[in-house]
Specification:
Elements lengths: L2 H8 L7 H15 L9 H25 L3 H12 L21 E7 L5 E8 L2 E9 L5 E8 L2 E9 L5 E9 L16 E3 L1 E6 L4 E8 L2 E8 L2 E4 L12
Antiparallel strand pairs: 1-2, 2-3, 3-4, 4-5, 5-6, 6-7, 6-8, 8-9, 9-10, 10-11
Helix pairs in contact: 1-3, 2-3
């Protein structure tokens, strides 16, 4: 895999920093984590596993590229500097003091200027509503974060605009002091109504109780019953 392919996999422009690479890695790992495809067709699970390997390799290649001696990158330096992009997520401002509570807006763009993502951060971590966009301009995901963790309503779309996933996340752990790990699934769990649609029809619909399925579910055309949901979730809210 070359550098160009690695940037394409992580959806990064030419203006790279270690922080932007690690952030893109976390985002792509979250989308393609094999656990998210549990219960789907074997082909989809295999594709997710392959994509995860590519994401890991892409991060290693780009990090290694950054650590090369300056002379190795000197020829392309001026060209890179002509491309005005913003790394994601922003740091909250280079002059933001440690412990600052400022919530700041950000935007990130693809190399051709099209909007890639926008939202707000606090102390450099996603905080509040974050939106990501496909290269065709359509909305990819819209979700809310709390101190770097997914926390709140979440929707994800196919590239043609059809709804893919509708869910609600709850952040776990000490979110006020701990930084999110590379696999954000470990510290945020699904809670409440969940819906997934691959090909236009509903594949899964039901309710999660702190990461566990509960109540009656529609799963690939069949009705499956799990342990009863708590009263506050019994109506699917």
């Amino acid at each position: 895999m070359d550098e160009t392919k690695a940037r394409e996999i992580l959806e990064l422009g030419r203006n790279l920093t270690e922080k932007s690479i690690q952030t893109a890695y976390r985002e792509q790992s979250m989308v393609w984590h094999p656990d998210r495809f549990a219960g789907q067709l074997a082909a989809m699970r295999k594709r997710a596993e392959k994509r995860t390997q590519e994401i890991n390799e892409a991060r290693e290649i780009l990090i290694a590229q950054l650590k090369k001696p300056a002379s190795a990158n000197q020829k392309s330096k001026s060209k890179r500097n002509k491309i005005r992009t913003k790394d994601h997520p922003p740091t909250g401002g280079s002059d933001a003091p440690l412990g600052s509570e400022r919530v700041e807006p950000f935007e990130e763009h693809y190399w051709n200027g099209k909007l890639k993502s926008k939202g707000t951060t606090k102390e450099g971590l996603p905080h509040g509503q974050i939106e990501h966009y496909f290269r065709n301009g359509r909305l990819d995901t819209r979700g809310t974060y709390k101190n770097g963790w997914r926390h709140g309503p979440w929707v994800q779309y196919h590239k043609d605009g059809r709804l893919f996933i509708k869910a609600y996340w709850v952040a776990l752990g000490d979110t006020e002091t701990e930084a999110p790990p590379e696999n954000m699934d470990d510290e945020s769990v699904l809670h409440g109504l969940f819906e997934r649609s691959e090909d236009g029809s509903i594949d899964e619909r039901g309710t999660f109780n702190m990461g566990e399925k509960c109540g009656e579910w529609l799963e690939y055309g069949e009705t499956v019953t799990y342990d009863p949901c708590p009263p506050d979730l019994a109506d699917g809210n």
